[in-house]
Design a protein that fits this description.
This protein has about 675 residues and is of the alpha/beta class. It has 22 helices and 13 strands. The strands form three sheets. Strands 2, 3, 4, 5, 6 and 7 form a six-stranded parallel β-sheet that branches. The chain has a five-stranded parallel β-sheet with strand order 10-9-8-11-12, covered by helices on one side. InterPro entries: FucosylTrfase_pln, GDP-Fuc_O-FucTrfase. It is found in: Membrane. Pathway: Glycan metabolism.
Amino acid sequence: MKGEVKMKSKLKWVGLVGLVLSAFSIFIHFLLARFTQMGIAIADYQSSVTIFSWRPIFHTPHFPTNSPSYRRLWGPVKRLESLYPDSNPRGYYSDPNSQTNGFIFVRIQGGFHEIRNSICDVVVISRLLNATLAMPEIQQTTSSKGISSQFKSFAYLYNEEQFVLSLSKDVKVVRTLPKNLKGARRKKEIPVFKVPHSASPYYYLHHVLPVLKRHSVVELVVSDGGCLQAILPPHFEEYQRLRCRVAYHALRFRQEVQELSAKILQRLQALGRPFIAFDPGMTREALAYHGCAELFQDVHTELIQHKRSWMRRRGIVKGKLSVNSAEARLNGSCPLMPEEIGILLRAYGYPTDAIIYVSGGEVFGGQRTLIPLHAMFENVVDRTSLSTPWELRSLYGQEVNLIDAPSGPPPFTEEVTKVAAWKNAGPRPRPLPPPPARPKSYNIEGWWGWVAESDNEPDSTVMELRTNAHKLLWEAIDYVVCVEADVFIPGFDRDGKGHLNFASLVMGHRLYQSGASKTFRPNRKEAVRLVDEIRDHMYQANKTWLKSVRRHLRKTLLDGIIEASNNSKPLSFLSHPVPECSCSRHDSFEVSKNSSSVSTSQVWRSLGVTHRCPAWMDTGSVSQFKDKENEEDLDEDDSVSGLFFRQSGGNHEGDGEVNTKEENQFEDQEELEGGER
């Protein structure tokens, strides 16, 4: 009997030890799975290595960087190599006064590009009014939107310390208002200005400054992305350079965003291949504002029309509700679809294994609209395919769980009341009582189910408001990647209010930071015409059409800058911060001035860069461009096969293996013509 008891006791202990070991093993496996995913080694990339959810596919293991083909596709724009950034003050520029006229507190509404434009403007306004700037409040990132409490509003997106230190010679910046003014603001005792979009400097000098001196504090509410006109009078030129110092030096993203952006860039560049950044610009608001509903089908068209109706009721859109989207597209008023961008890039010569990074916090229509682009290019990626979910979640900080509790039945007391009323009501027979009301839950694709049942869009939930704050961080990552990309091409440059969008900021930053970087600015009207010409016989494209596409895209590298100076700069200074924030190198300035190339002289005249760079920038010589940049022939196939030169019955594995004499002759001729631009 005792032996049986001891045996049972031993078995219990063995079972207990087994359970403990099993639990420990599961815990260890969980840690290994999590931290192995977080710390994937990315030092040695090969084309067969899986990087997160992206598996790179390359047809040619070696990518020659010294070939004429590489220089044409990925190389810098030589005629702009002498353009350098220079936003330092020129001439006398005083430090901010220790005694200011008062404090300016700013509330900024809008998306990523509107916030960035507005911050630059309010810094200039603070300098103009000799005011102390309190750290701006970004409405999208306040604690009421469900974000982590460890971040204050401005610090959710940008580095506060860098902002204050960088502007110490320009504007006095404090992290918060003094206690007495903070209390007065809570009681709504300080004057508030809802400033108009693109207001004149004299609006602030004549209307805001007297109130600021009288009350020692004013609050500005900026809602349309930019509260100061883009082009200022000539004697305000130093304020334009201040805008550049704010946008390109003071506004640095917070450390976590910078680190993840650097990791994604490293993962793209560690492959040893250049990449293209593409910003679709296809948001629901932009499509609604410009009347592009019929570019989509089914519920997406209805969603766009609903948003346009909402805009018309609020005076944002002045036109009719129903717009001929086909006509708007032909006029260049609608975004270029990802399919159309893919056709242009393939026609220009980019191979199917080129890496394309798709940016943007939202692509209206979802992944379905990107399917044609994926079909043309095998390495289409975005931030989610180059990072782990854990890395993205780490940006948000400690957030409260906002998962809504499932809706239960109505309260018991109401049930008792209804049943009692039914029993006491009139003689039988009586109709059955109605079922208890249930809260509507739109479960058709989640976010657009309300369209089928209601004319009014439901209010945003706290979860949706939180997601909007997250989108700012996503766009910050995309912004860094797009600025550093080897090639950038936008699908659209307008937002849902007719103003310039994210892509315009990127193009302006690239022009400031590295003017020679390859940035295509396609003319949408011309691009649509070219695509429609070949749409019905895309696989039998003739070489005349290919030359037209290449000539157009090559032309936009320079002529697009001239167009931006005329059309984009009056809307947003940061879309074209030249010539105020640029200088020209000594050794190439005279070359460009006396160049016999018509396009070169036109570009430099339109840029208006007369300021020569300081001597300390002359660390090396700038290559002397010629009227014909590439004098050597292109000896190899330039990836025009595949989509446009498909050989029937041929047995080839990639674009690089198709090399016909006819194609090479076309490439040689096209390459020589390219030097004349």
